[in-house]
Please model this.
Amino acid sequence: MAKTKTQFVCRNCGVQSPRWQGKCNSCGQWNSFVEESVGGGRSEERGRKLSKPSETSEPVALDEIEVAEGYRLKTQINEFDRVLGGGIVPGETVMIGGDPGIGKSTLLLQVVDRLSRLQKQGQGKCLYVTGEESAQQIKLRAERLGIRSNNLFIFPETDVLAILDQIEKTKPALTVIDSIQTLFLADITSAPGSVSQVRESAARLTYLAKREKLPLFLIGHVTKEGSIAGPMVLEHMVDAVLYFEGDLQRHYRLLRAVKNRFGSTQEIGIFEMREDGLAEVADASRAFLDAHFVHSPGSAVTASLEGTRPLLLEVQALVSPTNFGMPQRRASGIDPNRLALILAILEKRQGMAVSSQDVFLNIAGGIKVVEPAVDLSVAVAVASSFRETAVGADTLVLGELGLSGEVRAVSQIAPRLAEAARLGFKQAVIPHGNLKAVSLLPDGPMEILGVKTLSEAIGILVPR
Model:
């Protein structure tokens, strides 16, 4: 028998080392090396087998490659299709991650149910491979979701070779692996979930999906930092990486793409968690502003553009004198560093003594905003709470702030204002640089006010 050897593998980039290292020399990550056993005989034999190509192929001229019209597979879940770029591409491999209990398995079970019902379009069986739950547990969840499809097959298995064999036999319209960290290959001696097992399992599944043009979805666990567990090369193998976000205490869930080879990474899908599963949120702006129309200080409404869709969001701020030596700064839904920058502008340009105040900021609904177009609304909400003066409930605030206190123009002003007008807003305070674009639009019921500086905006919205 060959002697069993051990090696250390970086969980972030997959680089191997004969000894443990505190810092990876390849990716610079600290404390990322884990020990794995390597079987000598099997590993060497497997290496010799993989040293030669298993199949030969010939290069094809670009002009000779044909792509059929309507090649995307529609799931009939519009929010899901939107994030993928319009549907599932044949042979596409998608990784979806999220916190435990956020609804990843529920979402994909509903997706395969929809696809398994589309027999009239030639789309047949769907395969749901479960390595974490038994078939009976999946059946109980399916009954709760109202799923009773004859074309949806549950396959409780963790052996990658058995799963590959089943996919080749059934040729499913869609295969879901729940989850990639539970799978194993017998010729790798490390435990399931290790770097080697995850990398090799994903590689073989992805190769089969590309060769047979069969779409594949992989559910992945996430680490405490929020990234998908396993080597970073795992995200490079797949065509799309989706994250299912949301607060477990709230009923809204956001599906966001951080990588997509066949679509935009700016689109988000919005769902509502109900007793019978996840439901699409058709009017997201109205849902996020459901309880906004309360005339109270510290609140301002802004419009954030997520891909091609504008979302109206409420920015809430609470400013109160600090009881400790160091004032607190807490932000939910916005970068804390951005909040600190806006507070410094208010202190320097407006003379507001917020340095001695505790400041708490929240984007209502649990959504995260990264674009700078919400800067002005954040500053106005803080000023409103500081001065105890409420902003009009039917007023929209938009603009990016510069360090000198100037209000800079934002992109795509027309759809933002159109969304606000649809929801009945009567006034909009926008950057002066966007007035020219607004003048080209037809006259509407909303009063448009252009401001050049933060002082002008606060003078209009939060007077002394």
